[in-house]
Amino acid sequence: MGTEFSWQGGEIADHVAARVDMKEYLPPKRPGEITFVSSDELHQARAPRPSPHTDEWYQTYSGQRIDLLNFKATDVRLEDVMHGLPGLARFGAHARRLGGNIYTVGEHSCLIAWYTEHMLRRPKADVKLALFHDAAEAYTGDIKRPVKNKFPELRTILRPVEDATADALGVQRGKPDWLRELDERIIVDEKDALMRHPVDGTLWSHERAGLKGLGVPIRCLAPDAVEAWMWSIYQEVKDA
To answer: Who's near 205: CB < 8 A, 6+ residues apart?
Structure first.
């Protein structure tokens, strides 16, 4: 990743916007991606396929059939992660919108990756891990932390998906301490920019702990801009 932009003045937003229309930062279209089929072929394609959980699946952007209870690394497609996270609302979509756009898991991931490389000066393998630290949420959605804590059986379901996604993307499983700290501290920036104070005066956990934010600008970039940003970071760290 180059250093042609600085953090000052939120120039990162302009940098990303300038790259949105640059085709080299967008995933290439596959030959034959759009085809026309006959009604017989369509009927055959819609025919149910054997599965131990026939009704418990959904389709991804790339057309993958996903059964979370039987999730494997071979189910993961990079284009699904890159397309899914920029369209996935963080905080369950209960955050303020800026410029009409929601704040997404994709933008959150890009900010963590940017900070990892430019502020911490960590190696590219760590930047790649930071970019994909929430990649499994492209398949599971962004489940609120209190829900996970209330229903620990959810973690039993989510962990294999998280591990398989990490394996497929070539990053380590789980979060090392340095990454976990960034993931906690950025909540300060996100809350200050996007969230009202609780009406009953309750403090968030990071406020009780006295954590300081990362000082990153929360912009609520459009999904296409976030997707382009994710691809641009990935191009620089894909071989790490």
So the answer is: none
